[in-house]
Structure formats: structure tokens, C-alpha cells
Amino acid sequence: MAKAQIEDFCNGKYKDANMYIRKPWENFTFFDAVNIVLLSILAVVMLFPFYNAIVLAFNDGRDAMLGGIYFWPRQFTLDNFQQVFSNNDILGAFTISIARTVLGTVVRLFVVSTFAFAVSKQRLMFRRFYLTVLLFAMYFQGGIIANFLLIRNVGLMNNFLVFILPWAFNVFHALIFIAYFKGLPESLSESARIDGASNFKVYTSIILPLSKPVIAAVGLFTAIDQWNSWYDHMLYASGDNLQSLAFMFQKMVIAQRYLETAGSSDFIQGIAVSSSSLQLAAMIVAVAPIMIVYPFLQKYFVKGIMIGSVKG
Fold first, then answer.
1. Contact 238, 22 (CB under 8 A)
2. Domain identity same for 42 and 162
3. Helix, strand, coil: what percent of the chain each, to 5?
């Protein structure tokens, strides 16, 4: 709105300020049209594989092997999902998955954020040494054998804590927290310390409430990793009492694949579930909880990633 028009409106010459607000289509350009078309194509390319996986999960497994299924099931069936939920251990595996996801995420957020809070302060003694160790650990790791020997020697084999303690710290997530904490005004912490607040009080009462975006971003990363993890159970746990949902689904798919390769042709003809269709149904069941949680964290997730990527 031009200066003269603002003065006329303030003087009561115009009763409605909306007459000066341009409608969206008034500023529509050729670039906007091309941008919308390209982003729409990109969205379809990214979403169609997941949609097609849902379609195949609801289709007969033998019929799906013939191909040609794209937009809707050719032979609709619930046998794939019935096979997934027919396992008697699914409730226990679901409980283990929820427990390790919630507890593992909380522990990592606490450990990583406290470390980042301390390292982000210039006055920390041996700060440069800690950062050097952090960067060294990011590029060099012990490997599977060293990790296995360490887990066995500390007594975490067949222990639920083997899903929590080795996941307690992540270098990349620590760097995100450090970058975010450096961007917060130091005057906030200084004013709180002048009023007698301890470092832990500053961390819990000032820093954490201002860090919701980065907490949501790192928390979502960690939760997804914990929920989908099955390899650590294969290495460090034996038996079914600690198996997670992802590990149980992995076993079901392998067992179904074995039936297809080792079973007789007559037996295979009598079932409507294939290893591929079972894998897709298990994927849908495993992904559903994360998809339900993500919309509630999306606004914090995007902001946390952007801030952590530009703050130095």
C-alpha cells in the first residue's frame, strides 16, 4: 500500500483496507506456474511408491507376482495382514518396540543435550579436547567385532539395556544441539546466573524450553531409528522375550521366503501370501505409528533442522 493510500485510509476516505490487498492470483507469474507443476510432479514421484506398496499389501500375493498392479488391488485380500497379526508374540514385540523407542529417545535427548550445553560454553575446561574426541569419534569407529566384545564384557548381552545404552550418544545429533545452543543469546544464561541459578537450573528452566524445535527434530530421528532397529537384537540378544516388532517381521519374511523356496509347488499354490506381500504388509504396520506421530512434530521438526544447519 502506497504512502498516499495509507494516509487516505487513516483519514477515513476508504472504509475497507482490503481493496489494496492484492489477491494471490493477481501476482501469479509464469515462474509460479512452472514451480507448481514441477513440485507436483516431484510429490507424485515421491508418494507413488509408498501408495503402490499399500496397494500391493492389500493384494493377493500370488497375483501380485504377475505384475501390472499400480493404482488399486486386482485381487483384494486381507491375508497378508492376517498373517502379520497371527503371530502370538506380536503384542510382546510391540511392547518392546514402544519401550525401547520411548526410553531410548528420552535417554539420548538428555545425554546429547547436556553434553552439547556444556561444550557450547567457551568457559568449559578442556573444551577443545572434548570437541577433538567428538570429531574423532565421528570418523573412526571400532566396528562390529569391537562393539560385540564390549557389549559382552560389560554384561549387556540378553539385557534390555543393550537397546538403550549403546544408543545414548550420537555425534551428529550432538553437533546439531551444539549449533543450536550457540545461536541462543548468552545474556539469557548470564542473567539467570546473576539471579543465583545454577548451571543445571539454567539448562532445565531456560535452555530446554527454548529448544523445542531441535529437541523435536533429534527426537524424531532417534525414535525412527529405535522403532525400525532389528540388527542389534540379532547381535546381542537371543530368544524371543526381547524381540522388537521390526525383528519379528524380519523373521516372518525370512520364514515365508524359506517356505517358497523349500516347500512343494502344491503347498505354494494353496497360499495367498508371498514373501514380498508379507514384507509390504509388515512395513505398513511398522510405519503407521511413526506416520501418526510425525504431523504433531512437523512444525518443530522443520524449524529445528533449518536452525541447526545455519547456526555456526
1. no
2. no
3. 75, 0, 25
